[in-house]
Protein backbone atom coordinates (compact mmCIF):
# COMPACT_ATOMS: atom_id res chain seq x y z
CA UNK A 1 0.00 0.00 0.00
CA UNK A 2 1.36 3.42 -0.94
CA UNK A 3 0.54 6.20 1.47
CA UNK A 4 0.42 9.59 -0.21
CA UNK A 5 2.19 11.44 2.61
CA UNK A 6 5.31 9.24 2.62
CA UNK A 7 8.28 9.41 0.29
CA UNK A 8 9.72 6.23 -1.21
CA UNK A 9 12.21 6.08 1.66
CA UNK A 10 9.47 6.43 4.29
CA UNK A 11 9.82 10.10 5.23
CA UNK A 12 6.79 12.34 5.67
CA UNK A 13 6.07 14.73 2.81
CA UNK A 14 3.33 17.02 1.59
CA UNK A 15 1.64 15.68 -1.54
CA UNK A 16 2.65 17.60 -4.68
CA UNK A 17 -0.63 18.79 -6.21
CA UNK A 18 1.02 21.05 -8.79
CA UNK A 19 -0.04 18.96 -11.79
CA UNK A 20 -3.64 18.46 -10.63
CA UNK A 21 -6.49 20.30 -12.28
CA UNK A 22 -8.53 22.80 -10.31
CA UNK A 23 -12.02 21.47 -9.61
CA UNK A 24 -14.92 22.05 -7.24
CA UNK A 25 -14.22 20.21 -3.97
CA UNK A 26 -16.75 19.66 -1.19
CA UNK A 27 -16.78 17.63 2.01
CA UNK A 28 -19.33 17.03 4.75
CA UNK A 29 -18.19 15.77 8.15
CA UNK A 30 -20.29 14.94 11.19
CA UNK A 31 -19.53 14.80 14.90
CA UNK A 32 -21.95 13.43 17.48
CA UNK A 33 -21.75 14.67 21.06
CA UNK A 34 -23.70 12.73 23.69
CA UNK A 35 -24.68 15.41 26.20
CA UNK A 36 -27.15 13.51 28.35
CA UNK A 37 -30.33 14.68 30.05
CA UNK A 38 -28.59 16.83 32.70
CA UNK A 39 -27.30 19.14 30.00
CA UNK A 40 -30.18 18.84 27.56
CA UNK A 41 -32.59 20.14 30.20
CA UNK A 42 -30.91 23.52 29.61
CA UNK A 43 -31.88 23.47 25.92
CA UNK A 44 -33.98 26.55 25.19
CA UNK A 45 -35.26 26.75 21.63
CA UNK A 46 -32.39 25.60 19.44
CA UNK A 47 -29.47 26.29 21.80
CA UNK A 48 -28.13 25.70 25.30
CA UNK A 49 -27.61 28.86 27.29
CA UNK A 50 -24.75 28.93 29.80
CA UNK A 51 -22.88 31.64 31.70
CA UNK A 52 -20.24 31.38 28.94
CA UNK A 53 -22.89 32.20 26.33
CA UNK A 54 -24.90 30.29 23.73
CA UNK A 55 -23.22 26.91 23.32
CA UNK A 56 -24.16 25.95 19.77
CA UNK A 57 -23.63 29.44 18.36
CA UNK A 58 -20.17 29.61 19.93
CA UNK A 59 -19.32 26.12 18.65
CA UNK A 60 -20.30 27.14 15.10
CA UNK A 61 -17.90 30.08 15.24
CA UNK A 62 -15.10 27.94 16.73
CA UNK A 63 -15.58 25.19 14.14
CA UNK A 64 -15.54 27.69 11.29
CA UNK A 65 -12.35 29.29 12.59
CA UNK A 66 -10.72 25.87 12.94
CA UNK A 67 -11.70 24.73 9.43
CA UNK A 68 -10.01 27.84 8.03
CA UNK A 69 -6.81 27.03 10.00
CA UNK A 70 -6.58 23.29 9.32
CA UNK A 71 -3.14 23.61 7.73
CA UNK A 72 -1.86 25.09 11.03
CA UNK A 73 -3.11 22.03 12.93
CA UNK A 74 -2.45 19.08 10.59
CA UNK A 75 1.20 19.17 9.50
CA UNK A 76 0.97 17.95 5.90
CA UNK A 77 -2.29 19.66 4.87
CA UNK A 78 -2.17 22.26 2.12
CA UNK A 79 -3.18 25.84 2.81
CA UNK A 80 -6.60 26.32 1.25
CA UNK A 81 -8.77 29.33 0.75
CA UNK A 82 -12.24 28.07 1.58
CA UNK A 83 -15.15 29.28 -0.51
CA UNK A 84 -17.66 28.17 2.09
CA UNK A 85 -17.90 26.64 5.55
CA UNK A 86 -21.37 25.97 6.95
CA UNK A 87 -21.79 24.35 10.36
CA UNK A 88 -25.17 23.31 11.68
CA UNK A 89 -25.85 21.88 15.11
CA UNK A 90 -29.10 20.18 15.97
CA UNK A 91 -30.32 18.48 19.12
CA UNK A 92 -31.57 14.91 18.63
CA UNK A 93 -32.64 13.34 21.88
CA UNK A 94 -29.71 13.88 24.24
CA UNK A 95 -27.18 14.27 21.39
CA UNK A 96 -25.85 17.31 19.57
CA UNK A 97 -25.35 16.51 15.87
CA UNK A 98 -22.75 18.72 14.20
CA UNK A 99 -22.52 18.87 10.41
CA UNK A 100 -19.68 20.79 8.80
CA UNK A 101 -19.92 21.38 5.04
CA UNK A 102 -16.86 22.89 3.39
CA UNK A 103 -16.16 23.76 -0.25
CA UNK A 104 -13.48 25.30 -2.43
CA UNK A 105 -12.20 25.45 -5.98
CA UNK A 106 -8.79 23.86 -5.80
CA UNK A 107 -6.33 21.10 -6.53
CA UNK A 108 -6.85 19.16 -3.31
CA UNK A 109 -9.83 18.10 -1.24
CA UNK A 110 -11.35 19.66 1.84
CA UNK A 111 -12.05 16.52 3.88
CA UNK A 112 -9.62 17.50 6.62
CA UNK A 113 -11.11 20.99 6.85
CA UNK A 114 -14.60 19.54 7.32
CA UNK A 115 -13.36 17.00 9.89
CA UNK A 116 -11.42 19.65 11.84
CA UNK A 117 -14.40 22.02 11.78
CA UNK A 118 -16.76 19.37 13.14
CA UNK A 119 -14.20 18.20 15.73
CA UNK A 120 -13.47 21.65 17.13
CA UNK A 121 -17.19 22.44 17.27
CA UNK A 122 -17.64 19.23 19.31
CA UNK A 123 -14.76 20.14 21.62
CA UNK A 124 -16.23 23.62 22.10
CA UNK A 125 -19.55 22.12 23.13
CA UNK A 126 -17.70 19.94 25.66
CA UNK A 127 -15.80 22.95 27.01
CA UNK A 128 -18.88 25.10 27.39
CA UNK A 129 -21.00 22.36 29.00
CA UNK A 130 -18.50 20.70 31.35
CA UNK A 131 -19.60 22.95 34.22
CA UNK A 132 -23.06 21.33 33.92
CA UNK A 133 -21.76 17.74 33.71
CA UNK A 134 -18.59 15.84 32.86
CA UNK A 135 -20.63 12.93 31.55
CA UNK A 136 -20.21 14.15 27.97
CA UNK A 137 -18.95 11.83 25.24
CA UNK A 138 -17.79 12.89 21.80
CA UNK A 139 -18.91 9.66 20.20
CA UNK A 140 -17.74 9.97 16.65
CA UNK A 141 -16.41 12.23 13.97
CA UNK A 142 -16.60 10.93 10.44
CA UNK A 143 -16.59 11.96 6.82
CA UNK A 144 -20.12 11.69 5.46
CA UNK A 145 -19.42 12.58 1.84
CA UNK A 146 -16.99 14.29 -0.49
CA UNK A 147 -17.02 15.38 -4.11
CA UNK A 148 -14.27 16.36 -6.50
CA UNK A 149 -10.87 14.89 -7.15
CA UNK A 150 -10.27 11.28 -8.22
CA UNK A 151 -13.47 9.87 -6.76
CA UNK A 152 -16.56 10.89 -4.88
CA UNK A 153 -17.58 9.28 -1.58
CA UNK A 154 -20.89 9.03 0.22
CA UNK A 155 -21.42 7.16 3.47
CA UNK A 156 -24.62 5.11 3.46
What does this structure look like?
This is Cyclic pyranopterin phosphate synthase. InterPro entries: MoaC (IPR023045), MoaC_sf (IPR036522), MoCo_biosynth_MoaA/MoaC (IPR050105), Mopterin_CF_biosynth-C_dom (IPR002820). Catalyzes the conversion of (8S)-3',8-cyclo-7,8-dihydroguanosine 5'-triphosphate to cyclic pyranopterin monophosphate (cPMP). Keywords: Molybdenum cofactor biosynthesis. Residues 14-149 form the Molybdopterin cofactor biosynthesis C (MoaC) domain. The chain is of the alpha+beta class and 156 residues long. It has a single domain (37-148), classed as Molybdopterin cofactor biosynthesis C (MoaC) domain (Alpha-Beta Plaits, 2-Layer Sandwich), CATH 3.30.70. It contains four helices and eight strands; from the N terminus they run E-H-E-E-E-H-H-E-E-H-E-E. The strands form two sheets. Strands 5-6-1-7-8 form a five-stranded antiparallel β-sheet, covered by helices on one side. Strands 2-3-4 form a three-stranded antiparallel β-sheet. Helix 2 runs antiparallel to helix 4. The relative contact order is 0.27. The mean pLDDT is 91.
Q: How are strands sequenced across the largest beta sheet?
A: 5-6-1-7-8
Give the SSE string: EHEEEHHEEHEE
What is the number of independent domains? 1
Task: State the CATH superfamily name.
Answer: Molybdopterin cofactor biosynthesis C (MoaC) domain
Rg, rounded, reads 17 Å
Total helical segments: 4
List low-confidence stretches.
none
Structural class: alpha+beta
**Per CATH, what is the topology?**
Alpha-Beta Plaits
**Helicity, as a percent range:** 25-40%
Shape: elongated
Please provide the count of β strands: 8
| Distance between the first and last residues' Cα | 25 Å
CATH architectural type: 2-Layer Sandwich
Mean pLDDT: 91
Amino acid sequence: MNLSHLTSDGNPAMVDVGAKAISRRTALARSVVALGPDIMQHLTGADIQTRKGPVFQTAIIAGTMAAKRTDDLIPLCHSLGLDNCQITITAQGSDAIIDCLVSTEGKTGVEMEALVGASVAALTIYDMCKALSHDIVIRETKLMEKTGGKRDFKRE
